[in-house]
Amino acid sequence: MKRPYLVLSLLALFVAIPAILSAQNSQRIELLNADMSDFDQSVNAKATRLIGHVAFKHQNALMYCDSAYLFRDDNRLEAFNNIRITQGDTLTMTGNLLHYDGNSRLAQVYENVVLTDRKMVMHTNRLDYDMGKDIAFYTDSAHIVDGENVLTSHLGYFYSNTHDLFFRKNVILTNPKYTMNGDTLRYNTTNKTAFFLGPTYIRSAENLIYCESGWYNTQTQKSNFKQNSYLQTKDQLLKGDSVFYDRLKGIGKVFGNVAIIDTTNKITIQGDYGERHDMNDSSWVTGHALMIQEMDGDSLFMHGDTLLAIGSPQTDSSAKKQKDLFAFHHVVLFKKDLQGSCDSLVYKSSDSTITLYRNPILWSGLNQLTADSMIMQTANSGIQKIYLHSNSFITSQADSIETENSDTARFNQVRGKDMTGFLSNNKLYRIDVNGNGQTIYYAKDKTEKNFAVNRADCSDLIIYVEDNAVKGISLLNDPDGTLYPIHELSAKELRLKGFKWLGKLRPISKEEVIR
């Protein structure tokens, strides 16, 4: 009863055998041409020696050489001199010696090996090419030329289907505009993009770039760098979690943990997002923006919604390159001996001045300075003068107080049209009041307790300060002053017009600069 099934199975097997043999034969290396052939017993009794214009075909690959041994039983060959292999219409490989296995489709080419794929040309001493997977690899250094780009490395893989090159160990990509050095790199010959897979340096005449991950399009000159990335120019370092750079436009954009470090002027600007523009030598940062500048052995901390630095024109090429700084909105300053706030601020390197706009406040020791606008004159990394313009007011606490609005709150006050404060070692020692001068100052007895208050009106005043306390007042031009017992004047009479105590706004540490 089972014999019909056995017969059918045997028939199916006999029908399949020719198909299997045919498939195997289609995988055999095919000899296309040779000027002369014979058998070389000294090599292999089954090896055919081929000489002159030798050509083979195996699947979609053509192989040419001057001479060869064909091992038909093993389906392999050894070829010598003027080796040329073509696969498809784009890939060509040449060399002096070829070992080819038709079963694994692995071609091993030695000596003066050249692999060409469209515009890309690779030079090496040995190249293994897996024709089944379209993968070439080398382990003894290679030199690749792709347009303007020249690449070298110790190890490498080439995927001809995707036109990707993978490089390992001592990777160098040289371009007329820059040079890349790294440990691991992927390069696509179609879109000319290099992908960084390890620590990489990119050096050019304009800057140095470092990253441990990212990509660089060598055609568009656009790039993105990640992992400990930074961009360094002659006098500036730009770093962040991620750096996007357009070399043609000279624009760098930084995302996350931004730091722009001006090594020449000892300025660091930090924030969440920043940009660098090479064309006009400018940089700006926003998002928790903070500027830190070394000044006179100390550091100035400044916050603003946006911080901007622009290189100022230099008439002398040998002069130190300067930066103009701009801070926009909600500006706060902190230095151990000086604090401040305003809406906007400008530092001009040409005259070393810092101008505070809209509701400026400065605190120096016990003194609070306010005006419509202020200018600080700096020199030798310190502040020399402070100019207060319009509605100038200086206030200081006369003694300790519990609340700002209590009846016991006592403040020394100076009011005038314009004022000039003179500083030594960043401490006020003299204040000149010009126009509409008014003062309220408390006199102390030997126990340092307030016992009287001096109220004076005078067009111009000179106030002398020592250790943040008033030591003397000179009244100029028609002075009118009276010393009152401390309880004779009402609280209202002890406040000059425009008085405001803004102590709550004063930052008491660098951590309070960003609030």
Task: Report on the architecture of this protein.
By secondary structure, the chain is mostly beta strands. It has a domain of 166 residues: Sandwich (lipopolysaccharide transport protein A fold), CATH 2.60.450. It has a 38-stranded antiparallel β-sheet that branches. Strand 6 and strand 7 form a beta hairpin. The longest helix has 24 residues. The radius of gyration is 41 Å and the shape is rod-shaped. 32% of the residues are buried.
Summarize the structure in short:
This protein is mainly beta and 515 residues long. 5% of the residues lie in helices and 64% in strands. It is built from one helix and 38 strands.
SSE order and pairing:
Blueprint: H1 3-26, E1 30-33, E2 36-39, E3 47-58, E4 61-71, E5 76-87, E6 91-101, E7 106-117, E8 120-130, E9 135-138, E10 142-146, E11 149-153, E12 155-159, E13 164-175, E14 178-188, E15 193-196, E16 200-204, E17 208-211, E18 213-217, E19 222-232, E20 236-246, E21 251-262, E22 267-277, E23 282-286, E24 290-295, E25 298-303, E26 306-311, E27 323-335, E28 338-348, E29 353-357, E30 361-364, E31 367-370, E32 373-379, E33 382-397, E34 411-424, E35 427-444, E36 450-466, E37 469-476, E38 480-485
Antiparallel strand pairs: 1-3, 2-3, 3-4, 4-5, 5-6, 6-7, 7-8, 8-9, 8-10, 9-12, 10-11, 11-13, 12-13, 13-14, 14-15, 14-16, 15-18, 16-17, 17-19, 18-19, 19-20, 20-21, 21-22, 22-23, 22-24, 23-26, 24-25, 25-27, 26-27, 27-28, 28-29, 28-30, 29-32, 30-31, 31-33, 32-33, 33-34, 34-35, 35-36, 36-37, ...
